[in-house]
Design brief:
mainly alpha; 258 residues
């Protein structure tokens, strides 16, 4: 029962998928971050479903790309994009740490947030339209959805928290950090190994991209915000997703040109 509640807590927080709403407590939140990668599994499965639909019916190529672009947003309800937009606004302010924290809390959407989100979707759509969604590509992207959430959960249990309030603080303080860190680190290594086996060079490039964005996440959080927050976690996840997709597309183009 605690296992199911733990999964329900993760899906209730990090997805728009209807699930039973358990009362959050120490027991069902202790390993909630370990269940976070399961949301990525759902994204991967829906990618496969959409690929089957596109093969069964004559879906125009641009609509196919739009579907792949929108699946992660529909699954998450845009929770990570919200954090991405807020963080972009804060970074564009070039203000001090305190002011950046205020911008993160501001519910209004600034001009830079709008510009960055539009740019993000144009890039994501173009990359999806440039990629042949064969079995290998779908498996690599599916593993990417899992990897980015695994690293995000690991960061919550590892990196310094910017403030003593908010959802990241709640999940971090409720977690058994030692177990969560070890579990998610092992899972991340296994997913990277799977990417290597399935994607070869492209899989390695995707894994390197994810870890590079994680390093950038830690650096930006420490220097410009005094630690991580829920908004910064969303910023990391969206950037990791985009850069892994870009790595896959670049490797595919390079393979075809050889």
């Amino acid at each position: 029962m605690i296992l199911l509640e733990t999964i329900a807590v993760a899906f209730a927080m990090f997805s728009a998928i209807p699930v039973p709403q358990p009362v959050w407590n120490q027991k069902n939140m202790r390993y909630a971050m370990c269940a976070f990668p399961l949301v990525g599994v759902v994204c991967a499965l829906l990618y496969l479903v959409w690929a089957v639909v596109c093969r069964m019916w004559p879906v125009p190529s641009l609509l196919q790309a739009a579907g792949y672009c929108l699946v992660p947003v529909l699954v998450t309800g845009g929770i990570h994009l919200d954090g991405y937009a807020d963080t972009c606004d804060a970074l564009a302010s070039y203000a001090d740490v305190a002011k950046k924290q205020e911008i993160l809390k501001d519910p209004h959407c600034g001009a830079f947030a709008l510009i960055r989100v539009c740019t993000y979707f144009v890039a994501y759509f173009a990359l999806c339209a440039s990629l042949e969604m064969d079995r290998k590509a779908l498996l690599c992207l599916g593993l990417g959805f899992v990897l980015e959430r695994t690293l995000s959960g690991w960061a919550v249990a590892t990196f310094p928290i910017a403030k003593n309030t908010g959802l990241v603080h709640t999940f971090a303080t409720s977690a058994d950090k030692t177990v969560v860190r070890r579990f998610l680190l092992v899972l991340a290594i296994l997913v990277c190994a799977a990417l290597l086996v399935i994607g070869r060079v492209a899989g390695v490039c995707m894994a390197v991209a994810a870890w590079a964005v994680l390093w950038r996440y830690h650096t930006v959080a420490q220097k410009q915000f005094g630690g991580i927050s829920g908004d910064l976690a969303g910023w990391f996840l969206q950037k990791a997703e985009l850069w892994m997709l870009a790595a896959l597309v670049v490797c595919r183009i390079a393979e075809e040109s050889i």
